[in-house]
Automatic annotation (TrEMBL):
UniProt superkingdom: Eukaryota
Extent of the signal sequence: 1-17
Domain SRCR: 23-125, 128-229, 234-336
UniProt protein name: CD5 antigen-like
UniProt record, GO biological process: zymogen activation
Keywords attached to this entry: Disulfide bond, Glycoprotein, Repeat, Signal
Higher taxonomy: Eukaryota, Metazoa, Chordata, Craniata, Vertebrata
GO MF, one annotated term: serine-type endopeptidase activity
Cystine crosslinks: C95-C105, C198-C208, C305-C315
Organism expressing this protein natively: Pteropus vampyrus
GO cellular component: extracellular space; plasma membrane
Pfam family for this entry, one: SRCR
């Protein structure tokens, strides 16, 4: 009787799609790609890539609720790099691919010989998308489970959940979310989730509690629609190469500059990353000035990023066009790539 009750409780309680996991992927474009970090005693450390292969990545992908394993990139390709002081927790990991977590895989007893140059990375398939809309940042919320894309029922869903999706997809802020869809725009496949409840602070939709996969009484008329702002369109001008120059941002069809009040390393980093230009080289003031002042609009001022953002859009800033600057204060950025 007790056992039956236990099974009943396990099967009917809310599920956390993946937050109990003690592995995460950092620095990538979404939560299913990046440098591998594992948690031990409240600290996050990296994994050494000695013998790291696709089976090991498969376990990570599975553990995170991501799709299939697509690659074993070096952890060093994800910026910002691991801090020097950050610990390396695992070496010579050897999974057979069926383990429930990376912690169940064989590994060396200690980390005996490894540096952050050998950090392991993982590339798994993304498992959230906005479908059937104009562009990748507006559309019907779809999640992938057991290899199939399906929809999310609007019951229990709110703007906080939309915010998590927008951030996870590297889009801008969540503008609105609603129940959608007429016959022409609704989803076709399984309705995978309902009662998804996010506080808005989660890194991924997978960290929000929800009902069980595929268990609901929803119809496709209750599919969920989300609209995020598009990420800012950025360019670097005045230099010889794509990845160095004065920063300009497109708004209302007009390119304008960004004022350097409060601008620093973290903001540099977000720009380089968003443009696919590697890391910021943290140039001197003189080097920055070499691109000359801009002309025309000054669109942004007092930009503040935490450094974790995927795009400048997710950082705080004043209203478009509000500033107390002149063009001598235009931001310029120099990144490591060409
Ligand atoms: C959305 O719902 C969650 C709980 O389900 C709650 O924590 C959050 O504050 C809500 N957000 C909004 C914008 O109402
Ligand atoms: C679906 O509806 C049936 C009949 O009303 C009910 O018994 C069942 O609990 C519902 N299932 C869910 C997951 O809400």
């Amino acid at each position: 009787m007790d056992l039956l009750f236990l099974i009943f409780a396990i099967c009917t309680g809310p599920v956390l799609l993946g937050s109990s996991s003690r592995v995460r992927l950092v620095g990538g474009p979404h939560h299913c790609e990046g440098r591998v970090e594992v948690e031990q005693e409240g600290q996050w450390g990296t994994v050494c890539d000695d013998g790291w292969d696709i089976k090991d990545v498969a376990v990570v992908c599975q553990e995170l609720g991501c799709g299939v394993a697509n690659g074993t990139p070096s952890g060093v390709s994800y910026k910002p790099l691991a801090e020097k002081e950050q610990k390396i927790f695992m070496q010579e990991v050897k999974c057979n691919g069926m383990e429930a977590t990376l912690f169940h895989c064989e590994r060396a007893e200690d980390v005996f010989d490894c540096s952050h140059n050998e950090d392991a990375g993982a590339l798994c398939e993304k498992n959230v998308r906005l479908a059937g809309g104009p562009g990748r940042c507006k559309g019907r919320v779809e999640v992938k489970h057991q290899g199939q894309w399906g929809t999310v029922c609007n019951a229990g869903w709110n703007l906080s959940a939309a915010k998590v999706v927008c951030q996870e997809l590297g889009c801008g802020r969540a503008i609105q979310t609603r129940r959608c869809c007429n016959k022409a725009t609704q989803g076709q496949g399984t309705i995978w989730l309902t009662q998804v409840s996010c506080s808005g602070k989660e890194v991924s939709l997978w960290d929000c509690p929800s009902g069980h996969w595929g268990k609901n009484n929803c119809t496709h008329e209750e599919d969920t629609w989300v609209e995020c702002e598009d990420p800012f369109d950025l360019r670097l001008v005045g230099g010889d190469i794509r990845c160095s120059g004065r920063l300009e941002v497109l708004h209302e069809g007009i390119w304008g500059s960004v004022c350097d009040d409060g601008w620093g390393k973290k903001e540099d980093q977000v720009v380089c990353k968003q443009l696919g230009c590697g890391e910021s080289l943290s140039p001197s003031v003189k080097a920055r000035r070499s691109f000359g002042p801009g002309v025309g609009r000054i669109w942004l001022d007092d930009v503040h990023c935490s450094g974790k953002e995927q795009s400048l859009e997710q950082c705080q800033h004043r209203f478009w066009g509000y500033h107390n600057c002149n063009h001598k204060e235009d931001v310029a950025v120099i990144c490591s790539e060409q």
